[in-house]
Design goal:
- With about 35 residues, the protein is mainly α.
- Helix content is about 85%, strand content about 0%.
- It has one helix and no strands.
């Protein structure tokens, strides 16, 4: 049952990375048109 916990953590980490990348991309572009 421990594997599922690790999987969830990995998914959360990936989601966090994607969110940060998305935020950086928006900041890079400036205000969205």
């Amino acid at each position: 049952m421990n594997g599922k916990g690790q999987e969830t953590r990995r998914v959360r980490g990936l989601h966090l990375l994607l969110t940060i990348e998305h935020t950086v991309a928006i900041t890079d572009q400036g205000p969205a048109s």
